[in-house]
Each structure stands twice: as C-alpha cells, then as structure tokens.
Amino acid sequence: MSSSPIPNTKRPMAGLTDTGLPVKAAKKHKADKSDSSCPIPKTEVPMAALIDTGCLVKAAKEYKADEFKHALELSISIMRSCPCARGVERDMCTCKDFEKVATQGGSIFREALHTCHCDVGKNFSQCDNGHHIQALCSRAETFEEMGKLDDAMKDAEWILELAPRLPDGYLLLGKIAQLKKNDEYAWKIYTAGIEANKDTIVDSSKLQQLHDARKPLNRHFLRQDPLCLPAEIVSQIFFNLKCDEILLCLRVSKQWKCTLTSPLNAGLWRDMTFSDRKMRMDQGPEDFKRMLSWAGEGGARKIVIPRELGLLLRQDAFTTLLGESPCLEHLTILDLSEEMVFPSDGKKWNRLRYFSFESGYSGSSYGCRVDEPGGFPRSFLQDAASSLEHLDFDGVPEQWYYEPRVREPFPLSIAFPRLEQLYIGPNLPYLDPEPVSIWREKRDDIWPHLKVLIFESDGYREPSSDTARTRSTLRFLMCLNHGNTLQHIYLDWLSGLPDVDIFSDRDKTLPDFDIVKVQDSDFYNLRSFNSISLNMSPEGAQNLLSNSIQTKQLTSLDIVFPKYYHRDIRPLQRLYDPVGGRHIDYLRSYDWARGAPSIHTLGCYGFHLRRPPEDDDDHLLVQFLASFPNLQTLCIDCSYDDRADFMSLLLKILRLTHLKSIYTQLYDYESDTHFRQAARDHGVRLMENLMSKGLPKPWPVPLGV
C-alpha cells in the first residue's frame, strides 16, 4: 500500500513558554530540574486549570522518558475532573470493535453510538466536553511520542466512544491507523467521520481536515456506486460487460434493476453479446423476450452466441431471440446443436450486414440437407442477401461439393452485388469461368465495389483442364472493372504448371477462355500483391504492378522466385542446376520496380544461393532491397547449401537497409545466434515464423479511406 500524508492533529496551546510548558509550570520545572520526579497533585483542581498540561506532549520531546509518566498522570487527573466521571474513575467500554465493524462493511458511527453491553454504558453517559476530549488527545499523542501506538489507538477509540458526533476522534484514530500502516482502516474512519458530521453544526475547519486527510487515500479505497455517476459514464461502464454479465448486475438492488432496464439504457440490451464462460442455460423464450423489450423498438442490433451457449440453447429461445430483433445488424454464431433450425418464414432481414456461422463438430452441416435441423441456413441467408456485407461460414452441405456450379463465382455476384471482399478457399481447389459470355458482356458491372480478392488452395494438383480453368477464372476476377477497384490481392496456389504465368499472355492452355488479359487492365489503386507460392514473370509483374507503383499506391509486394521443372515428365520433377544463375537473371528483370518509394513491406521467397556463393548471388539481392528508401518489413526465405551463407546474406541486408522487422525462420545454429545479436544491435525486430505461412493475414482486410 502506498504511503499517504498523515494529518497533524495536534492543537495550538495557549499560555505556553518557549519550552512548551504553562508559565507557572515552567517556573516549577526550573526549580525541580535536578529532580526528574514531579509530585502529582493529590487534590483535584479545576479542569480548566489542568487542561494546559496537555502541552507536556510537546515538552516531553526534550525531557527524559520519566517525564512522560508525569504527563500521563496529569491527563488522568484532568479526565477525573470531568463532570461525566462523577468523581470516580471512568473506564473505557470493551464492547466496541471499530476495526472489525469497518472490515465487515458496517457503520462505525452506529457502533460508537449504540453498541455497549457492559456496565460503562449503564453508569456513564457520552461526553463531548472539550477539556475531556483534549485531555485524551494529549494522552494519545504522548503515547504516540513514546512509540506505544496500540495505547494511542485505544485513547483515540475512547474519544470516538465519548463523542461519536465530533470529528476529533475520527481525525486522531485515522492518523494512528496510518502510522500503523493500515491505510484502508484509516480511509474508512475518515469517511465515517465525514458522514457523522455532514448534517451537524461543527467546526468547519475540522470537517475540512477530515476531507483533506481522506483525499490522498481515495485513489486506493473509494468505492462509489457507479449509478451515482453521470448517465453517459454509467453507459460506458456497463457497455464493457457482456449481456449475461449485465443480467447478474440486476440482482444488486432494485435501483440497479430499474436504472439498467430503463429506456435511457436501452443501448445496453441492443448488444446481445454473451460471454464464453461456462453458464447454466435456463433462459426460455419469455426471458429473451423480456430482455429484448428493454432494448426498445427493433430489439437487438447485435447478437453473438459463443460455443457454450449455442450448444445449450433451445429452439424456441433461439427463434425468439432472432424473431424479436427485426433490426438485427450483426449475427455471430460459433456453434449450434444439431437439432437447431434458422427461422425461414420469409421475413426479410434487410438490415443484417454481418453474418458469421461456424457450425463446428456438434452441429456440422456437412451431412445435413439445407434448411433442415443442423443444416446450412440457405433460406435465412437469402432473406438477408440484399443487405449482407460480410458473410463468413464454415461447414457447407455435403451435396454442394458435387454441384457443378459451386465452382462458378458468377452466381455469387448476383446474390451479393455490393461485395467488397472475397476470400475463396482453402478447401475449394478449382474454379470455373463459365459462363464465359457473361464475363465478356458484363465485365464492368460484376462486383463494381470489389476491393479484396483472396484465393488460397491447399495442396498440389497435377496440371489438368481444371487447373487451367482456375487460372482463367482468377484472371477474370482480377480484371473486373479493369482492376481499378482492387486494393489487395493474395493468391496462394500450387496447382498446375508452377512456371506458367497467369499474368502475361504466355498461358495458351485454354485460348477459348482467355478473353480477358491482365495487360489490358490498369490496377491504379492496388495497395498490395502477396503470394508465397505463385510465381509471375517480370513481364506479368510489370503488367500488374507498374501503374500502382507510378501512382505510389503499392505498399506491399511479394516476389516468388521460379521453380524449374521437366515439363515432359509426370509427375513433375524439379530442376535444381543451374537454378541460382537463373534467379539472378530473374531479379535483374525487376529493375523497373527498383527504388519505389511507396513500398514498405516486401516478401522474398525461394531465392537459391549457390555454393560457393558468387559475388552477384547476394550482392544483387542486397542492392535490390537497399534501393527501396522506405522499406521497413522484410519476409525472406532462401534455399541454400550452407546455412552460414544465408545468415551472411541477412547480415549484409541489416547493414545496408533501414529495416524495422524481419520475418524468417531461425534455428539454434551458431550463425543464427550471431545474426540474432546483430539484429538487436541494429534495433531490428525479428519475427521468427514458419515461412510456409508468410506474413500474418487479417480477415477481413482493413481498408484505408
């Protein structure tokens, strides 16, 4: 616990000499200085005359320890002189336990005012006599100077017992609690004192002292009912909770339930995002209907059903949840039980923009027919097709894999005319360009807002008419609207002839389908082209990328060095020598891209280092990378005969570029350790990843303004 300033509770004392003693007492002290003992008055004297002995606390700092005893006995005499004692010695009540009450969250003021079962409460009344209170304060401060904090705390609690409506006891008790490193107890004491005095006429300076003493502790211990805060802050607090967590908050009090379910907080119930913690699902349709009524007209705008809830949700509750939300805009379902069916009553979901459905293993739609229990919700999606902007689903019906038109993207363009991002794969290996006439006639009308195209296919498939048709379809998709709406292209495809370039006019496999050519498109707005497997010739790369480099739009580029094969042998067999020399010639063909100022991320895959490396092998690649003035991120993967050659290449890249991050695969070899240290010395962050994955790919892709 951090320390906080401890208030000064000592009171100014009148009629003192420079030593801190009363004038008369000072004279006596001078006479008796040789004798450390001081006679204690045997007779009671007027309380007003004795109260000045409280100044002995200050004087005691300069005296021997024996002087403390004299000060304490004088304080006792003062307390006996108080009318509340009625001439007898008054003891402290032993029934009260302020610290225990504070720990349990009880009222300290009520404990001081009412709790007493011993004879003290029967024989003596409360006392707010200022002289009595000051005498106890003086004695407590004397104990404090003596280091007896437990005794000082007892006297402070005694003041609280005598005068629970005065601030003196709270100030002193809080101060001593802080000296004992019990800041939380001190904060509760100060708070109790403020509450006890807020409606009474007391010395405003002492009440202010309570506020000042508590203020440094508020940061650690102030717990305020959030509903007492301004409404906009209340909303911000509860918007951070999930729907089922807000339901638990309704149990706090009637006020909380009334406030959180009022029309003022309807926005809380328009976001029906449930937490993924394990929960007991006993809500029925009436429960959901009541919750959605708190959202106001239109019900929920966002519903997120985690896996745990989806497997426990009943059909009638699920139907109610959707049916009572006609203004639904976002629906995410991570799983549903295999008995569940989406509503398909013809109701139009003309505001639903985001739909994501992962059917998982328990409710997999793979073996189920569409629109049947556990099946793919085709009718539901058709009712929402006019407004959908984001569609993400997993677990399509088994029969769809055998439908010939599933390969044809054109029907999708009719169902989703305003599509902006298209991700195909990884389990759809082939595409079909049919009907070709449509692409020819409506090239400028199909998906006029398409900004992102991703095609990712897993595994390798031998060259065939299917792989050739897939290449043609990809060309069609890239060249829609002359390529000018596309901002991001990612193609990861290993099938067919790996050294056939789909971006130039060299692909003559299916001439009847090649009605669209990349070189006839512009791609002025392309921000990134990425692939870790698909090689394109320098000619094809120039067709695709040169305009966006000239307009300074292209920021990210991957270069995949070609693999060479025996084209007349099946299955295909790699050629390895002299690949290194061919790669140098291939890189020289990219001179048109050198020095592009807009490029800040570059991938380099499949470059082959010869053994022993020739000067041009690494020198040309390093100089190519160093030509980009704003290059910050490099993802690199090379083939080599000696690991040390690759590390040497990376060290040269470090010295001649201004990189901030390098993605590559590192091991525990000595050369790798040396490179790691060099990267740290250059302030370059190493991101060690499996090169088969390339750079991380977010989905959906963030789009710039």
From TrEMBL:
Signal peptide bounds: none
SUPFAM superfamilies, A to Z: F-box domain, RNI-like, TPR-like
The F-box domain, residue ranges: 223-272
Region (Disordered): 1-38
Protein name in the entry: F-box domain-containing protein
